[in-house]
Amino acid sequence: MKLKKLTTALILATLPATGAFAAALDRSGQSIAAFLQPGNYFEAGISVLDPNVSGKMNSTAPASNPTLGALANTSLDDMAGDYYFPQAALKLQLTDNFSFGIIYDQPFGADATYSSSDATLSAPGAPGAFQLMGETTEVEVKSQNISMLFGFQPIENINIYGGGVYQTVKGDVKLRGIAYGANQALGLYNASIKEDSAVGWLAGLAYQIPEIALKASVTYRSEIKHEAGTTESGVSALLGGPFSLNSNTNITTPQSVNLDFQTGIMANTVAFANVRWVDWSNFAIRPTAFGNASETLGALGRGPVGGFDLVAYTDDQINATVGIGRKINEQWAGNVSVGWDSGAGNPVSTLGPTEGYWNVGLGVQFSPAPNYFIAGGVKYFMLGDAEAQPASMFGTNESVAKFEDNDAWAYGLKIGYKF
Fold this sequence. Notes:
Elements: H1 7-13, E1 41-52, E2 55-57, E3 75-76, E4 83-93, E5 98-105, E6 110-114, E7 120-122, E8 129-131, E9 137-152, E10 158-176, E11 188-209, E12 214-221, E13 224-236, E14 241-253, E15 256-266, E16 269-278, E17 284-285, H2 288-299, E18 311-312, E19 317-327, E20 332-341, E21 348-349, E22 357-369, E23 372-383, E24 386-389, E25 401-403, E26 407-418
């Protein structure tokens, strides 16, 4: 079972099958598989996600917000927007012992829009009626990463690598409705987080036995700290009525560890697995005006003492995928995979109301010539049921809505070239 007989299947097995609907804000999975390809290599691809996430208000109101009882059992329309993200990588084998690579991806993101089925409730002192999530509540988060890797191969079987990471993040949030306190608290709140750049690092170790197509690697990525300029505006009795504030918001994207493994199991066939851990339990975003209002609510007994974050998670994420890739002939190969994601805690934020998933995936690869290929894949995600809560209920078992029986489809396309 020589390496040349497995080349096509090897590349397919490392195809990060078409994007993710992972826990918290995790998206690309931050794979470095392209950097571990032999020789000089280039790839570019795009992933598209089409989620279907809807829910229903609880039949009884939480004790901390009894006015929500007027919206019992109100249906919440599909709130997860379609999105896509590109990726690209270049790997150069400079000498027998040294390699260099650049990887571009969009590791973290969110795109959610809430609306309710025309349910409204008048709020005392408020100008008119407010929908639960209506007008609507929206969140959008985008990030970009450029990872620069340097590898040292003291012998053929070992690759020690590390490098720097340049990252940008930006976001926009709009909260509406009595779930966030309507005009009395944070129910008319906007935050525009301007794009900010910062740097981090990564390091890892890979081991391979080419004759049996065995390859194993572990990669650590550091957290990256941002201080992003933020404009907050809205109406809140807790902040003296209409307000507008420019300040800086601290955002620290989480550290993570990726474990990747593959091995030949028979002629023209490889088995592969990857496991990813992300430190979401230490992630939080608290803009200044939002934080001031939340601290006031806490002092009034309407939220945690000391305030609460706009976005935070209780648990770390663990994600795992296993599969088999097989070379069918000199031009065609395919793979199948099964994936699982733990989620990042339940109840979950109303800005991302799913709790992990199971998925199944199929991939196919066509190689018109030995040095390049076109690969595509599709995954079906069975999203975990979740209890959703606004930020003021974080750390409690209270929730305002249930999201059940949701799913998503993901599609991916990639080209690769060896030179």
